[in-house]
Design goal:
Layout: H1 4-9, E1 13-21, E2 25-27, E3 33-41, E4 49-61, E5 70-76, E6 79-88, E7 97-108, E8 116-124, E9 131-133, E10 140-147
Antiparallel strand pairs: 1-10, 2-9, 3-8, 4-7, 4-10, 5-6, 5-8
Length: 149
């Protein structure tokens, strides 16, 4: 049975971690590569949830092929949590397109008290087409909030 103290403690923010990255990063392969946006949090309880808020800025689809697009994903340590964009910038034209900011909000349950790394990665949907994040050195950000269960 939950006590009044347990109920009162549930849902409280125990800690907040913020990181940003603002260097243009490119990838012209169909293999996911780091965007440079990463943050580490060490949960205080194994029952805690981590609320992840990602703002991936300056996403740009390269020109030269009408089927070109950008895919983005969120990882915890080395494992994919979610693909939060699968075909950003697909327009059926071969023009360069700066799509701007993409993002996601994810409630994760890492079940650990060890340092946990969250980061974003991106790739091109077609080999040889250069895609970019943080285009023109705009800042992307990630916020990690430990929430008591």
């Amino acid at each position: 049975l939950a006590t009044t103290a347990d109920v009162a403690a549930a849902g409280k923010i125990l800690q907040v971690v913020h990181a940003s990255y603002g260097t243009t990063t490119t990838n012209n392969t169909v293999t996911f590569a780091d965007t440079g946006l990463t943050a580490t949090i060490t949960p205080s309880l194994t029952t805690s949830k981590i609320l992840v808020i990602v703002t991936q800025a300056g996403v740009a689809r390269g020109g030269g092929n009408a089927n070109s697009a950008v895919s983005l994903r969120l990882l915890r340590d080395a494992g994919e949590i979610t693909k939060f964009e699968n075909e950003v910038g697909y327009t059926a034209t071969s023009l360069f397109l700066n799509t701007g900011t993409q993002g996601t909000v994810w409630l994760d349950s890492p079940a650990t008290t060890s340092a946990t790394i969250y980061k974003t990665q991106f790739k091109s949907t077609l080999a040889g087409i250069q895609q970019a994040v943080n285009q023109n050195n705009v800042n992307s950000s990630i916020v990690l909030m430990e929430v008591s269960a």
